[in-house]
Design a protein that fits this description.
Chain lengths: ~300, ~130
């Protein structure tokens, strides 16, 4: 119904790549999370998906076809920054959206606005950042579309309203629609997204099912009786993505086979061998700033 | 089904495994009884605020492990012989917990005999032998 295929996408701004050779397949009927530090290229990717920015090269296909007007009608987009007209009331935005999109359901929009506690008589300029986000989200989810592209759809919202947005996204996926969203709130992505992609400096650095990434990626830690230990072939194992060695302690970031690698460490003479779980935040930090992460994970583990 | 399930998405344990573990435990404890209907995938996804495909994955594995069965159009149910499975599920939960404890004990360098002594002491505390 709406599989989205991004192939070798590049977008240069003044010769500088914002997106630098990015390929990704987004399956239908799910919630897909796009993660990355500021400036990673998430918003540019979204804009290219919507033809709001023209790719310098590469392609984006919807069910194998380039974005056509009828496909565009089936996509709702919530941009990161408010696109509401400051001088217009929320009521007027509902009316404007009704005129623009035939499948828009104004009654549903008002229902959602009430859930978010937005007063529809207010002008946009009188709304907080969070309330503006809520208005854009309400308008988007009342459009009855098949694809939702949401750039930071919980920006400025309180925890109760953030949860409302997540529930709306899950509801769309349950109906068979495709939701793509970006968020710096990794906990939300972890909860709602089935699959994620991590971007950094315009490139794709990690992609997969959240549950599989968690099942596979572990820290294996071992303590050796003295400082002069050798790891034999363990550090060269293809599944060991990174090795941190400090005096008697070694910590390995593994991408699979944690139990087996733990057994190798024991066989090499390590005592106190532990396998530590990683949550999505840990996995994200390793992917984008590999230098800092192990100590944090271990510190967190010991503090709980 | 009573609202017994909760998930902790921030944990390093995959969400679908958390769901599987809790349903198995509920069956083992009789909180979910043989033949009892489970919420639909969509309903449970909405209740827990997690992705429906994640819930569907948990249900598929539970079907494969013969804990639940799904009939198209009717929904998912605890298998009629589900309660017969209960002792087995209980044993699996216990074995898993013991494995974790034994791995910890091994990792801090305890010997086999030390572990045995600790285990006997723990057993005496939790399962006291009846006075003869």
């Amino acid at each position: 119904m709406s599989t989205i295929t991004i192939s070798n996408l590049r977008k240069l701004y003044g010769g500088v790549p914002a997106v630098d050779g990015f390929s990704l397949e987004i399956p239908e009927a799910t919630v897909f999370g796009l993660l990355g530090p500021n400036g990673a290229g998430k918003t540019t990717t979204f804009k290219c998906m919507l033809d709001l920015a023209r790719p310098s090269s590469g392609s984006i296909l919807y069910d194998g076809k380039p974005l056509a007007p009828e496909t565009f009608e089936r996509i709702a987009y919530v941009p990161e920054r408010s696109v509401l007209y400051e001088w217009m009331t929320v009521d007027e935005h509902v009316e404007m959206t009704r005129r623009a999109f035939t499948s828009f359901d104004p009654a549903r929009a008002y229902e959602l606005l009430a859930q978010f506690n937005v007063d529809p008589h207010k002008r946009a300029r009188a709304l907080s950042k969070g309330m503006k986000t809520a208005v854009m989200v309400a308008l988007a989810f009342a459009r009855n579309v098949n694809i939702m592209i949401l750039d930071e759809p919980t920006g400025g919202l309180d925890p109760v309203n953030q949860r409302h947005v997540l529930s709306l996204m899950i509801n769309e996926a349950a109906k068979g629609n495709t939701v793509i969203f970006s968020s710096h709130q990794i906990g939300q992505v972890e909860r709602a997204a089935e699959r994620i992609a991590v971007m950094d400096r315009g490139r794709l650095i990690l992609e997969g099912l959240v549950d599989d990434l968690k099942a596979d990626r572990k820290i294996v830690e071992g303590i050796f009786p003295d400082v002069s230990f050798t790891l034999d072939g363990i550090a060269n194992d293809a599944r060991v993505a990174r090795t941190d060695r400090t005096e008697r302690i070694v910590r390995l970031l593994v991408t699979a086979g944690a139990d087996e690698i733990a057994a190798h460490l024991s066989a090499a003479g390590a005592v106190g061998v532990r396998v530590l779980d990683l949550n999505l935040e840990d996995i994200f930090l390793y992917a984008v700033s590999p230098a800092t992460a192990t100590a944090d994970v271990v510190a967190k583990e010991s503090s709980t | 089904m009573p609202a017994v399930l909760t998930v902790d998405p921030r944990s390093g344990v995959p969400i679908y495994l958390q769901i599987i573990e809790q349903i198995r435990r509920s069956v083992a404890l009789g909180v979910l009884q043989a033949g009892e209907q489970l919420p639909t995938v969509k309903q449970l996804a909405i209740d827990l605020t997690v992705n429906p495909n994640t819930v569907a994955r948990a249900y598929r594995e539970l079907e494969r492990d013969r804990v639940i069965e799904t009939s198209p159009g009717r929904g998912s149910f605890v298998r009629p012989d589900g309660s017969a499975e209960a002792p087995k599920v209980g044993a699996e939960i216990g074995r898993g917990a013991l494995d974790v404890a034994l791995r910890e004990a091994k990792s801090v360098g305890l010997t086999r005999n030390e572990v045995r002594d600790l285990f006997e002491a723990g057993l005496e505390r939790w399962f006291p032998t009846e006075a003869a």
